[in-house]
Design a protein that fits this description.
Number of helices: 5
Strand content: under 5%
Distance between the termini: 45 Å
Radius of gyration: 17 Å
Oligomer: single chain
Largest sheet: none
Length: 128
């Protein structure tokens, strides 16, 4: 591929997702540094990210594939939330003899994240 002929408008979405992702990754790291109790950091970012994404997709005038959605939704929220850490932490709880805690973590995170999406959408709908 000849890079000199790449249309800058084609690269725009990649740059937006990348910039948003960089911000989300840094924010995720900071939460991990300041919230260090029993996997609470992972729970916090997943629920907060779900709220933000729910709010974002509820904005009526927002283009679902536009710049704000690419940067904030796919980029930031995608990098900020962390399903893989949630999955690993849940499995480790079960493997270390805490299966009830693993189930509570899994179900609790899922329910809280789904409620956060609905709450984020409801807040934007009420304010819009």
């Amino acid at each position: 591929m000849n890079l000199s002929v790449i249309d800058p408008f084609v690269l725009g979405p990649f740059v937006l997702v990348g910039l948003g992702g960089a911000g989300g990754a840094v924010a995720r790291y900071l939460v991990g540094e300041y919230v260090e109790r029993d996997n609470l950091d992972t729970f916090a970012v997943n629920v907060t990210g779900s709220f933000l994404l729910g709010a974002l997709v509820a904005v009526p005038s927002l283009d679902p594939v536009g710049p704000a959605t690419l940067a904030a939704g796919i980029g930031f929220c995608g990098a900020f939330t962390t399903f893989s850490s949630f999955a690993v932490q849940t499995v480790r709880l079960a493997e270390t003899g805490r299966p009830r805690r693993a189930i509570v973590t899994a179900v609790g995170t899922l329910v809280a994240a789904l409620l956060a999406v609905a709450l984020g959408a409801a807040v934007v709908t009420a304010l819009w």
